[in-house]
Predict the structure.
Amino acid sequence: MKKLLAIVSLLAFVGCAAPLTSIEAKNVSGTMLFKVKPSDADIAVDGQVIGKAREFDGSSKVAKVGPGKHVISVSKPGYVTWESRVYLSDSQEMVEVDLQKEGN
């Protein structure tokens, strides 16, 4: 009985000393939300179109982007293209853009 009690006590001690969770941060990415007018404008990250702005407004999904420096552009025919250089960490960023019509 004493041996059983000693084993249970040892297991409880080892269980308490061990970390509860371990997190591996290999594929960390930040997320971006886009609030764009017009909402059917194209979103590009580093020159590659990822979809329409309305797809990444946060209501259904967000754009997952790796950490680091990126060039974000928002464009639509008939409108002046908006472009910005951003540094993204593992946080969530919101990009709000109101595209201007060409000639205005």
